[in-house]
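Appendix B, Record 12. Input sequence as logged:
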Amino acid sequence: MASGDTAITKKCGCTEITIFLLALIFGTACSICSKVMMDMHGIGMTGETEQFSKPIFQTFGMFVGMTFGVVMHWSVLYFRVPFPGYNHASPSTNSKDHPTESTSLVPKDANSDSKNSGQIPLSMYFYLAIPSVFDLAATALCMLGLRYLDVSIYQLLRGSGVVFVALMKDRFLGDRLYKFQWLGVVLNVVSVILVGVTAILASSTKTHADVAQADVIWGIVLVLAGAFVQALQYVFEEKVMSMDIPAPPLLLIGMEGVWGSVLCLLVVYPLAYYLPGDDHGSYEHFGNTMAMILNTKSIQIMFGVYFVAIFGYNLFAVLVTFLLNSIWHAILDNFRPITIWLADMFIFYFINEAFGEAWIKESWLQLLGMAVLLYGTSIYNAPHPGSVWLQGEWYSLGLDFSDEYHEIEESTRESEIDAEW
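Logged structural output:
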């Protein structure tokens, strides 16, 4: 049967493409800043120079940056700024208008006047702690799994998230996907596999060769579990922004940041302090992190750039979920390794060879992965403008989904007529 309303009516137009590209740009900048910061050195609390390898602090910084969404949320409401997910129309104004042939008997915004107009129940602010827990749990699982795996394998496994999201949308949100959309999802996974294989072939040494096979299997399980929990977060965010009383995108971002910051300070950092590690006896010492930031100007500047980039990425990524759906959010994650690779090559050849990545013979496989990713995404976006229709042509490999395309177009026309009247 047909897929749900979300799959039918939400098309990737010019606005959605712009938001998607902005999320991709900020996400790429965020990943590069994160990578650079992990390689930087600063003066620690003992006065000695140390490497600024602080993954927990980067996660904490991400949540702190997201809290700015609360400020933006209240600013949008107070100044009545037009923004996706907000309706500033006054119900009382509409009630005074008499229906005519050009206006429906029931105003089109009658059901949405209460939505995103500032009348958000207090419970919503606590309800939005759930995606923060998902985010922290996914990060922790993936970090633990990465200890037993090469980065290339880790990246490959994270690409499975798009499949988990698609399955959850089908089962929990009732948005059943068409066959051509499933094909687009599968091609996204194939592209991630190609990127992962490229990294494996390009590796001259095995950084985890001394890890036991059982630990490698355990690492794979942990990363897949992290991808599953991350998918839960994306689907939950889509659901909470489409309920009868929905959470506006900015409030969702902001409260995720607030609760995530609280959890980091009250749960994660105390655990990191008492767990043994190489950071002055701890897994990660918060006091030493603060000392390195205060004592090192370059780290302060890079963290400032990271702070802006991570907020921009989370803002536009949530808007991708709001304007499109959670599968597009997962597709966005699969695009990032490709854009990071392109950015690394640009840095290597045009800025500084000490940073970035050179073109190697295996890069052709990565380029193929990028082509498959673009092809799969274009298939998934059909039958909307700019997409690839599979109707039996040579590039369709004999596949013909004309009936599904016509069904979507007919449903879209009916929805537009219903909305107009």
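The CA atoms of residues 179 and 401 lie 8 Å apart.
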